[in-house]
Design a protein that fits this description.
Shape of chain A: globular
Number of helices of chain B: 11
CATH superfamily of chain A: TusA-like domain
Strand order of the largest sheet of chain A: 1-2-4-3
Oligomer: heterodimer
Strand content of chain A: 25-35%
Radius of gyration of chain B: 21 Å
Number of strands of chain B: 21
CATH class of chain A: Alpha Beta
Number of domains of chain B: 2
CATH architecture of chain A: 2-Layer Sandwich
CATH architecture of the largest domain in chain B: 3-Layer(bba) Sandwich
Distance between the termini of chain A: 16 Å
Order of helices and strands of chain A: EHEHEE
Structural class of chain A: alpha+beta
């Protein structure tokens, strides 16, 4: 059964949502998911860029108000 | 009220001193008691290690006696905690003593963990301890030319270090007269050369002027014996001198007591209370908050916690939230510096570097001790 953890990076600039996601990926198992909450619109493109380059999987990106919910799955 | 502070670094020391001043009357009457437990009798000015690693600040200048930094009413023991028994409001120390508390502050910090990336500890230098900084100085001093690789793990303490160490080493080799024999290969985990977009934009221009090569989206996977770094993304960096900003973890005691993954304790971003507890505050690098692991973060969090602990006695309730405030100097080389300041609601907008900020940073290397005493 895969798990989903949430990283609440709303309103944070440094190290920022993507760096938190990269750190978080090291702490989960293959098949598990991470959901990053970000108020930085740049995350919508930053996160897929890294996920695609490193070989993990994008699950979904949704927007609620000014918060983006970006869900990724650890693939390796 | 018995207040127990675990950890004698920047965060714990400011909480203790700030609180002691606010509770002077209560401490005298016995209505309040402040105890600090630390692993060391000495307090290190950690940002000084960057200067030690290039021979500009002697190791003994990094330290002060911890007792000398504390208000006299604070009970201080060099006796690190080994067991946190949060359900019974007590801790047990290395010497076997049990300390009870009404309110607990955990500020044990974080540590560089190069050993978590295969080959990194054996094949790189860093400036995250006195021993490491002295080894870095030895290798930097003996370096005759070639590629200097800068590699960055996550999370790491002091977000400005990757840029600062690059600028500082560039200056060092220029002063030594071998700049034409040294190439820099700077790497960074995300798609720009610093976490803060405006800082990255400025630094990109500076690096271009200095001829520093960059590779972004580069996360260390392993380092082989030839100082070739292989990334998670499938790229490599080959260096004769490998300077690392290693990934960090919280302290072992936090991991052993299962208080948080990788030694970072789940913390409410506003109250700074440990999640699920109403009398355990977390300060500085020990939190799992997605904000900078920096001395200033610990400082501003410590002021919030101290004010709230004092308020619990004086008002019967806490009175303020932590607003996410962080302030970081950025050494930019050529005796110039700037700074970035931001909080949960206000993004950073750093100005162009200048000499005045650099000299203020030099002064702050001494003013730090006033800051730790809670005077600044």
């Amino acid at each position: 059964m895969s798990e989903r953890k949430i990283i609440d990076a709303r309103g944070t600039y440094c190290p920022g949502p993507l760096m938190e996601l990269i750190a978080g990926m090291k702490q989960i198992e293959v098949g598990d998911e991470l959901e990053v909450l970000s108020t930085d619109e740049g995350s919508v493109s930053d996160v897929p860029e890294w996920i695609n380059k490193v070989g993990h999987e994008m699950v979904e990106t949704t927007q609620e108000g000014d918060v983006w919910h970006i869900v990724v799955r650890k693939a390796k | 009220m018995k207040i127990l502070i675990v950890g004698g670094g920047m965060g714990g020391t400011i909480v203790a001193n700030n609180l002691a001043r606010r509770l002077e009357r209560e401490l005298r009457s016995g209505k309040a008691q402040i105890t600090m437990l630390s692993a060391s009798e000495r307090h290190m000015y950690q940002p000084g290690l960057l200067y030690t690693s290039i021979g500009r600040l002697a190791p003994d200048e990094l330290y002060r006696d911890q007792r000398s930094l504390l208000e006299p009413e604070i009970e201080f023991h060099v006796d690190p905690v080994e067991t946190f028994d949060l359900d019974n409001n007590q801790v047990v120390t290395k010497s076997g003593k049990t300390h009870g508390y009404d309110q607990l502050v955990i500020a044990t910090g974080s540590r560089a963990a190069p050993e978590t990336i295969p080959g990194l500890a054996e094949n790189s230098v860093n400036c995250y301890s006195e021993a490491a900084a002295l080894e870095m100085l030895r290798q930097v001093r003996d370096f005759k030319g070639g590629t200097v690789g800068i590699v960055v793990g996550v999370p790491h303490k002091c977000p400005m270090i990757p840029l600062e160490v690059t600028f500082v080493l560039h200056d060092y080799f220029k002063e030594k007269g071998i700049a034409d024999k040294v190439q820099f290969q700077y790497t960074y985990p995300i798609g720009r050369i610093h976490a803060l977009a405006p800082v990255a934009e400025w630094a990109t221009g500076e690096f271009a002027k200095l001829g520093i090569n960059t590779t972004t989206l580069f996360n260390m996977k392993e380092v082989d014996g030839n100082k070739i770094v292989h990334s998670e993304e499938g790229e490599t960096v080959d260096a004769e001198l490998l300077v690392a900003v290693p990934p960090h973890r919280g302290m072992e005691v936090i991991e052993k007591n299962k208080l948080g993954g990788n030694g970072f304790i789940p913390t409410d971003r506003h109250s700074l209370l440990m999640e699920g507890r109403d009398n355990v505050y977390i300060v500085g690098d020990t939190t799992n908050l997605p904000i900078s692991k920096a001395g200033s973060t610990a400082h501003f969090e410590a002021e919030t916690v101290a004010e709230n602990l004092a308020a619990l006695i004086k008002f019967g309730t806490t009175v303020r939230d932590y607003d996410g405030k962080v302030f970081c100097f950025i050494e930019a080389g050529k005796e110039r510096a700037t700074y970035a300041m931001f909080d949960y609601n206000n993004p950073p907008a750093p100005k162009a570097p200048n000499k005045a900020v650099h000299w203020f940073k030099m002064a702050y290397n001494q003013l730090y001790w006033a800051s730790a005493r809670g005077l600044l």
